From TrEMBL, chains A, B:
<keyword id="KW-0678">Repressor</keyword>
<comment type="function">
    <text>Negative regulator of class I heat shock genes (grpE-dnaK-dnaJ and groELS operons). Prevents heat-shock induction of these operons.</text>
</comment>
<dbReference type="InterPro" id="IPR002571">
    <property type="entry name" value="HrcA"/>
</dbReference>
<dbReference type="Pfam" id="PF01628">
    <property type="entry name" value="HrcA"/>
</dbReference>
<dbReference type="InterPro" id="IPR021153">
    <property type="entry name" value="HrcA_C"/>
</dbReference>
<dbReference type="InterPro" id="IPR036388">
    <property type="entry name" value="WH-like_DNA-bd_sf"/>
</dbReference>
<dbReference type="InterPro" id="IPR036390">
    <property type="entry name" value="WH_DNA-bd_sf"/>
</dbReference>
<feature type="domain" description="Heat-inducible transcription repressor HrcA C-terminal">
    <location>
        <begin position="103"/>
        <end position="321"/>
    </location>
</feature>
<dbReference type="InterPro" id="IPR029016">
    <property type="entry name" value="GAF-like_dom_sf"/>
</dbReference>
<protein>
    <recommendedName>
        <fullName>Heat-inducible transcription repressor HrcA</fullName>
    </recommendedName>
</protein>
<keyword id="KW-0804">Transcription</keyword>
<keyword id="KW-0805">Transcription regulation</keyword>
<dbReference type="InterPro" id="IPR023120">
    <property type="entry name" value="WHTH_transcript_rep_HrcA_IDD"/>
</dbReference>
<keyword id="KW-0346">Stress response</keyword>
<comment type="similarity">
    <text>Belongs to the HrcA family.</text>
</comment>
Length: 338, 338
DNA sequence: ACTGGCACTCGCGTGCGAAGAGTGCCAGGG
DNA sequence: CCCTGGCACTCTTCGCACGCGAGTGCCAGT
């Protein structure tokens, strides 16, 4: 359908536009890339590309800029993923290795991604769905109050206050804690409900109220924390959006504050590799002039969460994809080690 | 030194400028506020105020705008704190009461502050300095590895991995945990170091290495977590900064990402009440065109952390101060209850 | 199928003039 | 002595016309 040279022209347009942020004309193209043809020929190709909807001109007598569809073709067929250089890899690894706990890993990952890509970075905390329970702790806080602490194998810790229906002794709590752990330690979150179902039966009738309150709080925590948290950074890079950034930045900032939106965004990417959503491909309206590059990462073979960056559609796709992929890989390694 | 009427003129200028975001002239002033004098008189007053450095004109033959010094005078002498209305208070209380844990309290507070003030909200997590240890937990993770979990009375939980010099049995860990808790539970963070100093002596020589590793990790956590965390929100409100916001927004975003900067900023405010730092009063350069309104909050009488908002110097000070104070008060209540 | 040439379209920067807002100052009046 | 009305002056802003330059589309020629 599209001749080889026309594709080359499209690639050149994308590359130039990404570099200069200005509509690119036929003459400039032939000068900067040796396509072996004259501007006039390129003009014809451009007209064809425009007919197909891959490029557009902001106004008559201006150069062309790629459309979302143009970027899509570029990403899918015309450009690969630019791998990181060896020094870059080393830097990534070194930087991530200094982390002291899970929060720190995530925080460092965000910083790193934002710095490497010079865009807004979004990192989802490792998911609990695939996680297993490392330990459950139960602490007396007041006569009829306890604190439930859940520790996962990814190093995440969640706590909840439990208001008991009746005063409860420390011994009972310790007993419950022991039984609870013997049942759920090392098990998957999804298996926990069925494992603790009959637990109240082992207790005195007057204690059962407390026991089931604790259990329901635990189950609640497991579910609730599946609603993932995430961390974002590098928002200052939003100023890189281009000359019209004042108009674009507000909806983007608003979208970034809506964790639900972002989680949905990351969640949609089912691809095993790097996923790119360009402009209007993003469901959320505020992100219609941004592209999202995301990828899953995980401590083992399985992806437990996603990370990615949000930037202008006019971005360096190969480089960004390379950085995102590399960071995901190394974060996975770090998580596997700890 | 400054006559009563001149102060009124300054107040009027601040109010008008905050409302319209445009330099205010003598004629407009006399029309919108009934000062009982003519524009000519106001002009003389303005000239005097300008000589004293309270107002300035962006260019000749434009109206006047307040300087940082002008805002300072306004905040100190000319305006009070505008209290929240009863419905607003109820809304605040209702919104905060839905929180399920500490993270949620902080998250809700940020949202609330950002919404009420229509500015960027910053909330520091409750400090550990004044806190006491509720419980210390020690969990075996691998033969020579354990997880240390610290729970504070403010409901905060911190965890750290501990790499032991030698393999350690579960019994030893349990023993250490029991002794540790009996010594430090309920004590202030600052007292912990001296309380655990001689703890290794009670153990077998070959276990002492492990014990002191655990202890030093604990002490490290206590110190490190004094470097507070904080949460920010409402960054989309940065677009409200004014017509020149494209220039201002970048350094502000950068400053907001530097937690250290923000912590220092909040930390500087020693005032028991609401503190306002205007424009160049902020040490950080990027925040030179912003004002920071902050206040301490706490679960008891003592302030354990700070919260506040960052906005343009051109802000509604009485309203913002009122909102910040009210939110701090209610957050304190919520924390005291939990 | 590519190329060179040419006429045409627009956006953008510049310069100028009119309009408007606001000021500073001065002389007069309570 | 302080306030007021009036007046001349200063600047910014806006609208408009103009010319320049970049870029295009089309066509005839090779």
């Amino acid at each position: 359908m599209l001749s080889e040279r026309r594709l080359q022209v499209l690639r050149a347009i994308v590359q130039d536009y990404v570099g200069t942020e200005e509509p690119v004309g036929s003459k400039a193209l032939t000068e900067r890339h040796n396509l072996g043809v004259s501007p006039a020929t390129v003009r014809n190709d451009m007209a064809a590309l425009e007919d197909e909807g891959f490029i557009a001109q902001p106004h008559t007598s201006a150069g062309r800029i790629p459309t979302d569809k143009g970027y899509r073709l570029f990403v899918d067929k015309l450009a690969g993923v630019k791998p990181m250089t060896a020094p870059e890899r080393r830097a990534i690894q070194n930087f991530l290795e200094g982390a002291v706990d899970l929060d720190d890993v995530v925080a460092r990952t965000v910083r790193l991604l934002a710095q490497l890509t010079r865009q807004v970075a979004v990192v989802q905390y490792p998911s609990l769905t695939r996680s297993t329970v490392r330990h459950v702790e139960l602490l007396p806080m007041a006569p009829a109050r306890a604190m439930l602490v859940l520790i996962t194998d990814t190093g995440r810790v969640e706590q909840r206050m439990v208001d008991c229906p009746a005063p409860v002794g420390e011994a009972t709590l310790a007993d419950l804690r022991a039984r609870l752990n013997s049942r759920v330690a090392g098990r998957r979150f999804t298996d926990v409900p069925s494992l603790v179902e009959d637990l109240p039966e082992g207790f005195d009738p007057e204690e059962r109220g407390t026991v089931s309150t604790v259990l329901s709080t635990l189950l609640e925590t497991l579910v609730e924390e599946n609603e993932e948290r995430l961390m974002i950074g590098g928002t200052a890079n939003l100023t890189r959006f281009g000359h019209d950034f004042p108009l674009v930045i507000r909806p983007v900032l608003e979208a970034l504050e809506e964790q639900v939106v972002l989680l949905k965004l990351l969640g949609e990417a089912k691809d095993p590799g790097v996923t790119v959503r360009i402009g209007h491909e993003n469901a959320h309206e505020g992100l219609n002039s941004t592209s999202v590059v995301s990828v899953g990462y995980g401590s083992g073979g399985e992806a437990v969460a996603k990370l990615g960056v949000v930037g202008p559609t006019r971005m360096d796709y190969p480089g960004t994809m390379g950085a995102v992929r590399a960071v995901a890989r190394y974060v996975g390694q770090i998580l596997a080690e700890s």
